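Teaching assistant here, posting this on the class forum so everyone can see the example we discussed in section. The complex has two components, and the goal was to see what a joint structure prediction looks like when all of them are supplied at once.
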Amino acid sequence: MTRAGIYRSRRSGTPDSETSSGGGGTAVMRVIVPLQGVVQGHGGLVLGSVIPCAFFYFLQFYLKRNRRDEPEPEPDPVIQNSASSTNNNSGSSSPTQSELNGLSRSLSRVIISPRSSGAHVSVSGRANCILKGGDSQGLRRVEEDSYDESGNPDGIIELGLAQNKLRLDVINDWVSQTSIGLSLSGIASYEPPDGLMELKMGVTRLMSEATKNVVSFDPSQLVLTSGAASAIEILSFCLADSGNAFLVPTPCSPGFDVDVKWRNGLEIIHVPCRSSDNFNISVTALDRSFSQAKKRGVRIRGVIISNPSNPMGSLLTRENLYALLDFTREKNIHIISNEIFASSVHGDEEEAEFVSIAEIADTEEHLDKERVHIVYDLSKDLSFPGLRAGAIYSFNENVLAASRKLTALSPVSSPSQHLLISAISKPEFIQTYVKTNRQRLQRIYSEFVKGLKGLGIECTRSYGGLFCWADMRGLISSYSEKGEIELWNKFLNIGKINVTPGSCCHCIEPGWFRFCISNLSEKDVPVVMNRIRKVCKSQD
Amino acid sequence: MRLIVPLRGVIQGRGGLFVGSLIPCCLFYFLQLYLKGRRPPPSDPTELPRTSSRSNLFSRGNSIGRVRVSSRAVPVAKPPDSPYYIGLERVKTDPYDRITNTDGIIQLGLAESTLCFDLLQRWMSENLMESIMQSGDGEFDISSIAMYKPFEGLLELRVAFADFMSRIMGGKVSFDPSKMVITAGGTPAIEVLAFCLADHGNAFLIPTPYYPGFERDIKFRTGVELIPVHCRSSDNFTVTVSALEQAFNQARKRGSKVSGILFSNPSNPVGNILSRETLHDILKFAQEKNIHVIYDEIFAGSVYGEKEFVSMAEIADSGDVDKSRVHIIYALSKDLSIPGFRAGVIYSFHEDVVSAAKKLMRFSSVSVPVQRILISLLSDVRFIEEYMTAHRQRIRDKHVRFVEGLKQLGIPCAESGGGLYCWVDMSSLLTSYSEKGELELFEKLLTVAKINATPGTACFCIEPGWFRCCFTALADEDIPVIMDRIRQLAESIRS
């Protein structure tokens, strides 16, 4: 540009020669060069061609640089922790993890210098995205230095991982009594990957039990998968095409990001709920997000909700569910209800009633049922996450047919199936189990909330799930995500407890934290409270 | 000072100022318009808006168009059209039983083995419950199996797996547990690898005939294409580098990006074993083209022939090659005959692949109780040695018996040295030498002879008339029954 300017100013004194050199009137053939109007004279032919080319080259170069830089997120703790509470693959092998950080960077460098080296073969672009995402710093720290009442009283207490240790003794009795149930012919050979009929019947019984036998579930509409994560992955694969989106009211389970996005290439559009509404889902907010997305040209294929909600632990009422179903009908989209904590409802009988969306769907016409899908997690409800068994319950024949085939890609092994059958085929086991579970959750929940209240920290009222959703807005130094992460770091480093910050659950109000209380026994509660107090003091 | 106008060089004179500004603007406008017209409509305009508007007109409860599943789920939900799956389904409706259903269909389509069930049965009855209950320190602790564990598999299991693999491969290779990710069977292992090595729309080269399940494992979700590299009976279905080269170039011409080669060794369905030289050549080829090599070595422990089995890991370890492109799949379902356990492994020399696969195991990991059983099963060295010897011996016996029976009927088999099946040339029974003739024969075998064998078309073989017959789930007394049935069919066709 500057060079062009110089040329032009040098020649500007001779306007006459300029027009003649342009010579439009003559019949002689001339070469037309883009910038000849700017760069006149003899050099014009060359410069006029070179300059646009150079510009174009630089534009390309600039675009290329920008593209490479964009998908590399900073490794801040929020993103790192986002997978933590459900994703616990964490660094059991921390040395390889640290190598990895170095590696992914060098890999992108390889891409920039285009295949000239030829020696290093690169992995697929989508695998690169996975490499960058979702490592949990908190969890790694817990693995390195975990709390033990006698062995390591100064270790970090795990309150981030959604697992249930309250009922281990019940499970213990069960496993030690099952020795008769396993025989080789049953467990070694090929079995239908979507689950044995016997097990499906047991699971539907368990699901009915959670609704107090109001709903009866049909075993033929059930497909077993290896855990709720793969259940959600398979469902979202079947319901939406790459590039489509799901609406998810927030705060939501941090695992959705991974389950829906990683391999399926789908988007999640968060619909924020606010503390002023007690984090209730409002259909108007859903509607607004829907039309906004539509305007942007994104196609919404469904809504994903959790009931009992994770992290708040609130329950959806019949009215809520009707409203949601009407909304999905109006927009002609699907609804996935994540009911993995259905048997972990612990509120009082009168005020807390768990209503499954299946109950609402049953009152609807056939065509409308087809949009309803339920995700269920056996291992969570039985507090046996190591068993990795989840389920899809759907009213849609096509979805069922497709998921049955896809379970071959994430199957439940036959020994696990037989272990489960031996447990849940006994009705008395399920009943005592669900009852004990409720009582223990109730007890630990009230203890914990009382403790927090003593420190001046309020929680939302929770009726189900393994969590306590605490309002710590008073404790954060600045009312922003940064302040929240600072506090989270303090919890980890000073208080030595690992919790889940609200930003991981995509809560738009900073200062909320999720405590997974089912990791604790009652005598741990004072220890945790002391540690929180310590953090509070350091904050003052 | 003068105004600079873009097209002044072209359009001179007085009008130049005006026209020279206007023309570029117009061009730009038309470009925009063109681009806009070319872009696909943001949402399917026929579906959603109409129905939603209708629902506004009528009040709730009126029938709206059915809610749609995603278009990628539709092909998955469709009933299978491959004869492989059709045959498997048909057997389920009327399975043969020596005593209760002597007219049923005999299953030769599923590669499973019941040859050593007695040994496994004995081990399980002695050790099964203890192995679940036993945690590391010998005391039973429920949290050792109930709680979340690393998705890529317990370290103990990976060590046991590595040891087991090097044992069945003759102790020539040692495997490194840190390069290993335990998966819920061979199927997810292949899918995860395909996902990690290729992007949507990329392709793998794959020599035919190949295992029909790859279609499902790779194409359903990852969107990776399979480009067949045809092998012929004249080479005993062994792939050549020139054929690979040709397929690679053709694919490139068509504009599809080849990201890897997928092989099974011992091959499925032929059962032949690749020689050390071939493996070297393939790896060299991959290096030259800078693509990945995926080796499916699921039948490595079921080798019964004279020919020595060489693992790709050995080749990769041996020389000056770039190892990071080599990925191996292994599973216990065939060699240990425990498909119900769904235990497999990805063994990769590429660190990024290992760590991405670890994360993806969130969706298909092996449950912890099963891991416990496997740890004690695989580390019981005495049992494993006894089992492997018996397994090989019994396949060899069964193979000889089966092939001999076919030979007497005048039906030859391809030369094979591993696997639970043989690759049978039934072209003499075809009424027409074509794919149609082969499918007719498949149908006749199924309905008249009541035998389910997998036809070559299901394995994408280009020569018609070949069938895969799995013989390891048969008892000795079943073989004469099968031969009888085939003889009757052959006589009715030839007469």
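For the discussion questions: The longest helix of chain A spans residues 427-454. Confidence is low (pLDDT under 50) at residues 1-27, 68-118 of chain A. Think about how each of these relates to the inputs above.
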